[in-house]
Amino acid sequence: MIEIKKVSFQHENAEKPSLKNVSLTIAEGECVLLCGESGSGKTTVTRLINGLIPHFYEGKMEGCAMVNGLNVTEAELYDTARIVGSVFQNPRSQFFCVDTTSELAFGCENMGMLEDEILSRVDEAARELNIEKLLGRSIFELSGGEKQKISCASVSALRPEVMVLDEPTSNLDVHAIEELKQTLLGWKAEGKTIVIAEHRLSWLRDLCDRVICMKDGQVAFDLSMQAFAQYSTEQLHQMGLRSLRDEKIAPVQNSVPETETMQLQNFCFSYDGTPVLNIPHLSLPLDGIIALVGPNGAGKSTFSRCLCGLEKKFKGQVKINGQLWKNKQLLKNCYMVMQDVNHQLFCETVADEVQLGMRSENSSDVERVLEMLDLSHLRERHPMSLSGGQKQRVAIASAILAGKEILIFDEPTSGLDFRHMEQTAALLSSLKGNQTVLIVTHDPELIQRCCDHIVCIENGTVI
Amino acid sequence: MARGILQASIQNRGLVLDPRTKLVMLFDIALFVLGSAGGGSVEPLVPILCAMPAVLMLSAKKWKGAATYLLVYLLSWLTYTQLVPLTKGAVNFILLGCSGMLSRFLPGIAMGGYLVSTTTVSEFTAVMLRLHLSEKIIIPLSVMFRFFPTVMDEAASINAAMRMRGIYMGGKNVGKMLEYRLVPLMTCCVKIGEELSAAALTRGLGGEAKRTNICKIGFHIQDYLLFVVCLIPYAVWIMGRVL
């Protein structure tokens, strides 16, 4: 069904090629997992199949890719779109319409199908994925999991024979991943060919029949899932892969020491009259690393926003070391490292950036923190030119130097491979003892590595 | 996320009008209220036109918008007609300027607000197709409307980040606020724009086939009624000329 013939590809402006002479054949009805570290070329392979390379992402390319007899390297993207459907990582940026029904119809409309045909296809896709009740809603009201379902359905409506998914679970919780799995199982039963590039492997164990691991732009190995499942977790980690076992969130020691706690009081908040957060009282260990878990839409982000003093109408307070912090003090003493770090880097050099929020200029402090976070050699670089992990460290450095006592991380490891996840875990552990760190996360492996306390939020309350 | 421009939800939207009717009404208000076309003969009809945005907002269950509009408009109108003649000098000048501007511009702005907050992007595109505009104009426009809420979302996150860093009005670094806001905003928008185009292209946007649009637009009894309302000022205008 899919045939990649001796493809080499180098992105424009890239220093090294993303693919080196890769050849692959995928049979009809196969479900293939593409794994490998970040930058190993798995996303590039998915883009070869859906034609975005070389038509959208330009660069130097040799060889070609055939899908169902169509040379997608040469065919126009709208012809490829009939046989290859794509689901992407970021649900925020893959919707073209603003309401769900038009989104489902979007692909068919582009093909110029008849109106009745489109309507029946939309209905069928919605029935298949069990999302009838989501029709006619605004995209912006949906949760991450619901958005991902809509994008699957909108691809489904075009009835392509090949489905390509590029890290579809980066922003999903356990429950939403399970539903995505059901969708994919449905497609598999229909005999569609599925290619998934993913870091998180455990949910694909019973779904994929073949595993292709990429390394430095080449195929490192190509195994059946049965053979792949024989690898131990340690062996996988050595290859830079995440665990294949279903990692449950391990019950870490959860007793709060009597001394050294901070008391969160009256953490209640509602948006337009709908209560989303209702935590009358909660004590958290001071200077610990606390994981904040719970399903999408449970109130985790509202909790973080309130704790950072970002909600002006928020009335709660934090009692810490005998002091009482309200909104204003919270804003001064807490800092959130956002999932998209690009939102919080403003200056022209790293050195300026970390000094921006400092209350008094103190160059020895700056030196010490830059050293600690391994940023000294980058001090003259523009923050936007750094890699994701480096940006994250710059944001942390700026928070420490601004004298923040509480740091909150929003999904710091979403979309990271094993090695980067471990680096982040080490970095977070190194903050222990100086700052209180809260991590909003869905990543059991991260929690296992660095957290010493878990708070689970569901329906706006702690359970 | 609050609903913004062309982000109407399809559920619970009250009385639905064809976007073309709304456009005609907007044009009417611009012509007769803002441009005071027709002069003295049409003037008695202006209050009716000014009331239309409020009526329409009520029909679309936008209670708050309607109330705010009515209140502000009545205030400025009362100032204009009652308070201004009583004052002198600089006060008179300022009051006249403010209330005069408000009472002329406000109906148009409110009508525009009603138009964009009760129409969805697909309805808008459908209408433009019906009006035989080229896809070269329609596609960029619909992308633009799709982009507004995203940009606002991004701007809100950046704003939050700035406040956590102690950059706010009255804090230090006020002079650089614009730069701090725009640089990350542009970076994020470029990235999202690229991902968005990639997603749209893999679903066949830009093909040779003529796009269909499943959005049902069409004129109903309420549209015809409004057209009649829209036509009255023209009729009065022409009659005033002829007679």
What would you say this structure looks like, in words?
Chain A: Belongs to the ABC transporter superfamily. The complex is a heterodimer of chains A (463) and B (243). In chain A, strand 17, helix 15 and strand 18 (436-440) form a beta-alpha-beta unit. Chain A has 16 helices and 20 strands. The mean pLDDT of chain A is 86. The radius of gyration of chain A is 24 Å and the shape is globular. In chain A, helix 13 packs antiparallel against helix 14. Chain A folds into 2 domains: 2-238, Rossmann fold, CATH 3.40.50.300; 287-312 and 325-462, P-loop containing nucleotide triphosphate hydrolases (Rossmann fold, 3-Layer(aba) Sandwich), CATH 3.40.50. Chain A has a 6-stranded mixed sheet, with helices on both faces. In chain A, strands 16-17-18-13-19-20 form a 6-stranded mixed sheet, with helices on both faces. A 4-stranded antiparallel sheet of chain A has the order 2-1-4-5, with helices on one face. Chain A has helices at residues 42-49, 52-55, 77-83, 100-111, 115-128, 144-156, 174-189, 225-228, 233-238, 300-307, 327-333, 350-355, 363-372, 388-401, 418-430, 444-450, and strands spanning 2-11, 19-26, 31-35, 59-67, 70-71, 84-87, 162-166, 193-197, 210-215, 218-224, 261-271, 274-285, 289-293, 317-320, 323-325, 334-337, 406-410, 436-440, 453-458, 461-462. With 463 residues, chain A is an alpha/beta fold. Chain B has 243 residues and is mainly α. Chain B has 2 domains: 19-119 and 217-242, no CATH class; 134-201. The termini of chain B are far apart. The model of chain B has no long low-confidence stretch (mean pLDDT 83). Chains A and B meet through helix 3, strand 6, helix 4, helix 5 and strand 16 of A and helix 6 and helix 7 of B.
